[in-house]
Amino acid sequence: MKELSLTLCVLSALLGGISSACAQEAMQPVEAVQPVWRTDVTSNITQRLELFKLVPGGQAQNIRLTGVNNRQVFDFGVRNDELLSKAVLELNFTASPALIAGRSQINVLLNGQVQRSLAITPEMLGKRFNAQIMLDPKHAQAANQVSLEFIGHDKDICTTPTSESLWLEINPSSALLLHKQKVKVANDLSRWPLPFIDTAGNASSVIPFVFGSVPGSETKEAAAVMASLVGTYTKWRGADFPVYYNTQPVAGHFFVFATNSNRPDFLKDVPLVDGPEVMMLDAPGSLYAKMLIIAGRDEADLLTAARALASSGRVMIGERFKVTDYKLPEARQAYDAPNWADPNNPIVFSSLMEYPGQLTSRGYEPAPVHLSMRLPPDLYMVRSGGIDVNLKYRFTKPQGADSAQLRMLINNFLAESVNLPTKTAIGEQLWRLPSINGPLATSLLEPSALASLNDLSFQIGYYRELNEGTPDNCKSVVLLPHQIEIDPSSSITLDGVYHFVELPNLALFTQSGYPFSQYADLSETVAVIAEDAPAEKVTTLLNTVGRIASVTGAVATHLTVTGKVDQKLLEDKDVLLISEMPLTLPDFKQPNAEDLYKAVQAIVSGQEASDEGSVLFSPLAGVGAVVSMQSPFDSAKTVVALLSEGHSGSFLLNEKLQDPNALFTASGSVSIVQEGSVLSFDVGSRYTVGFLPWYHRVWQSLSNSPLILALCTLICAVLVGGSIFYFMRLWVKGRSR
């Protein structure tokens, strides 16, 4: 009917006049023309993102907007092979009952473009309210930012921004709903790592690995190289590598490892190769999915192709890349991981920056400036050492009688603070922070201590005096935004540190991949996994290697994989053992942890572990375990065993390994991984690795035993006093002669 009325209006206009009905029709808003669907767009995807998880810098606990802190941003990404067709912000909030309805509002922006200004109505005050706000997908990019801006009024005149009545609480149920379509991209390796690895958002990556059959040791090494390469891209986001044998994944992009004699059936039409080769082809039967084929004549070619793809400086164009001149680089030196700061030299802030503008903050109350500093996890700082900070900065000078203070925090603990002068906008501070006197912290409960991963935070606070005035004599208050800039040439220096650590300590492994990450390319690591290992055990290997690479930023090009315990091969190496649980545990108690520890010792020594425990776990429950001990082949090397019971146990363990933030509570030498909890036990003998001067070792031993220290002090006092008394007697006798 609408189309008919429009046609009649057009005919009327041609005849020389426009009726009132046609005029009213012309005044109506015109519906937006639906975009023409692209021919490369395929299946629909709906994604729901919790708003609190999109806060920059990590998941927020609460979000409260005030008259001064009136802005909050949320980051989300759209993959390169996806097209955003619809975005809805489901906003759940509670507004202060003191707000004036109509004058108070919430502005919603997408990438700086206003999407909607939501007026605060009387029914919204003092209670939870839900609002759905449509976002224009035309304003979306690969990396996006949604901004909420709160404008509040609690008085008709003389509203003070610092009033405690001006607040709006964002509730945790708020979410961002994205409707997307997959886009079929061209087979072009010049786009690598796209579309397989996309880090535009915060989501973890899931990349299936497909083999023709159970892979041999060299094929496992090639797969580990690719998993570690993915880990260097995904970093803190995490990555999961489900393994398939001769089966194509249902959906999504995936990697395939194929030799001329051992390849999945769905590659039967792909021509054989005459050397190491990397191919990007359409996945059979899929409208959008791609497969990255690591191909070769044999397993050695697969390893060469994977290493060549992981090396920098390779130029790849088109759907095929033939490796013709690859040479394996020399093994990396200890502690030279790209993501680790060098504790032996001043650590310049510019080397810690991850993006431009990271050292600048603006606003009425500028948000803290954050820098991440990752250190080798086996550092030990002696009492005579310390932390020297050379901080250079610029800031907006306080107005009038106002003042400002600059604070430095390390891992949310206050390290130092200083009142800033009001006559200059440029400053420099030289701070000497006390020594941590011991190893790096492995728990957030350890105050004022460095850890393997540190958050350096710099924040500036301004003290303001605001006179509100009265309704008869209103005084306008204009808050000017402030700015702080930390100079990239600022530095932090660690003094009195050694590489010395007491083991076993699973916290070092779960948080930093130690001891394997000591050599970032895993040149000092041997992974022991059965030749006929099931798919889920291979996933455990890949998730572990990917996790280590996310910490170091280096590819595991020198990892060795073997199918059995070989003393000659394991000498002078750290051992990563991946196996089925050697025994069933009757309970989660210390004696059972000791039994598991001994069983792993037997496996590493080439013996058969006996299972004398009673069956506790059903196939549906699942349990995993992580065990660490001194290597029987080298006193300075370590064994870390990743064990799981059945498919469900492997699924649980792999789920934890793919998340870099999981398993952080593990400690000691044995950790039992259950659904929702990790139980840790300290069993077996302890040993030390690294170098610490003997006098510091003596002091370390004495400081850990106050009674022995008091006894030694008493003995020293007696010896010194006795010596003084003896020599005084001799002196007196000499004078009497």
Task: Set out the fold topology.
Layout: H1 2-14, H2 20-27, E1 41-50, E2 63-66, E3 71-77, E4 82-95, E5 105-110, E6 113-119, E7 128-135, E8 143-151, E9 167-170, E10 175-183, E11 205-206, E12 209-211, H3 217-234, E13 239-240, E14 243-245, E15 254-259, E16 277-282, E17 290-296, H4 299-310, E18 320-322, E19 347-348, E20 360-363, E21 369-374, E22 379-395, E23 403-410, E24 413-420, E25 426-434, E26 438-439, E27 453-463, E28 482-486, E29 491-503, H5 506-512, E30 525-529, H6 535-552, E31 560-562, H7 567-570, E32 574-580, H8 590-604, E33 624-630, E34 638-644, H9 646-657, E35 670-674, E36 677-681, E37 687-690, H10 694-703, H11 706-736
Parallel strand pairs: 11-13, 12-14, 12-15, 15-17, 30-31, 30-32, 32-34
Antiparallel strand pairs: 1-10, 2-9, 3-8, 4-7, 4-9, 4-10, 5-6, 5-8, 16-17, 16-18, 19-29, 20-28, 21-27, 22-25, 22-26, 22-28, 22-29, 23-24, 23-27, 29-37, 33-34, 33-35, 35-36
Helix pairs in contact: 3-4, 3-6, 6-9
Describe the structure.
There is one protein chain. By secondary structure, the protein is an alpha+beta fold. Helix content is 20%, strand content 32%. The strands form seven sheets. Strands 19, 20, 22, 25, 26, 28, 29 and 37 form an eight-stranded antiparallel β-sheet that branches. Strands 31-30-32-34-33-35-36 form a seven-stranded mixed β-sheet, sandwiched between helices. Strands 1, 2, 4, 7, 9 and 10 form a six-stranded antiparallel β-sheet that branches. The chain is flat and about 90 Å long. 36% of the residues are buried.
